[in-house]
Amino acid sequence: MNYLKQFLIILSISFIGEILKAVLPLPVPASIYGMAILFVCLLTGALRLEQVRGAGKFLIEVMPVMFIPAGVGLMASWDILQPMLVPVAVITVVVLVAVMAVSGRVSQAIIRHGKGKKHE
Amino acid sequence: MNEFMQTSLFAGAAISLLAYMLGAWLKKRFHSGIFNPLLISIVVTIVILLTMKVDYDTYNAGAKYLSWFLTPATVCLAIPLYEQLALLKKYPVAVAAGIVSGVLTSLVMVLVLALLFGLDQREFVTFLPKSITTAIGMSVSEELGGHVNITVLVIVVTGVLGNILAEPVFKLFRIQEPIAKGLALGSSAHAIGTAKAMELGEIEGAMSSLSIAVAGILTVVGASIFSWIYSVL
Q1: pTM surpassing 0.90?
Q2: Residue A95 belongs to what domain range?
Q3: Which of B96, B93, B92, B78 is nearest to B135 (CA)?
């Protein structure tokens, strides 16, 4: 019963997200509106963590399974993918390494700058 | 068999779950980032469908219900974000700069490479959300009119490679601070990278899981701007 109540809260927030998506003229998915609403509810104390945590953690844990149908859809869009294979491979690897290096170096520079200041 | 599969609502979902369990077992057995359960389950399911000569629409008639949970599950990403909030408050500048620079690098690099390869608008937006978590990335691609299946492939492969390449990349670019490692993994390789960050340490893991939601939200905004830029170029 407890899980059911948590799931009801999560579904209701998802529903409000859908309404916002329908009303607001922005290219923002319903799930992002919902995520923002839940976050604000937790911040303001309108919802306590225990009221969504159990069902929420379960949904996050099994989330990869929800992507299987979309991934399997590749067999239907092979004709589109095949001519794109080279860009797909290059973009996937190059962007990954670039993002990892930039994000890591930038944050490390700031952390070390802060540490240096403290020693002065 | 195909005739029966066409009336079965549960065959597709059952095959998917079975394939996922096999992937999870392989990962546990060999302890390697290459054995990603999602990647394995996609490949195994495709192989099973091809051998049994079941087409995608038939499979998806039942399997699509697995995706039904995606919106509520994505909403729940607010929970780990809320739990990691203390960290964000403790290192506001480093966290913000690390994630923002990561998101911008991703969008700019995709733009540059797309121009280089001469991709059309639809192909370009397919790659835009490549660095963020599948749940958000899939919706971004769908919203902007990309090839959603290819987006999912690119996102998952990015995560798996990020998991494998993290340590060599950190060594090459001399990234040694635990906070920086966590932010780099979370903003470049989302949830699959976070699994690696958690192996590296507690701070790395927490920083990485914080980055998933923040980078995701920033990319929702950034991707629509970059999509517009590409359309006028």
Answers
A1: no
A2: 70-120
A3: B78
